[in-house]
Amino acid sequence: MLEMRPDCEKCGGDLPAEGAGAFICSFECTFCADCADILDETCPNCGGELMDRPARSLKAQEKFPASTVRKFKGY
Question: So which domain of life are we looking at (predicted)?
């Protein structure tokens, strides 16, 4: 199950689990759309491809809450 990390690792912007606009690699490194574009859709941590992260409905979040651990690195 995806962690649904709450922020972009590059800029620190909020990325709600129920919203669109988050991009992840196979290790779940997470970036906003603007930062993914700057990174040419390539993860700076592992070199993997950044793909659209699926949204999680609010109902599903009741049973499977998104992570609250922020991973901002500020490259």
Answer: Bacteria
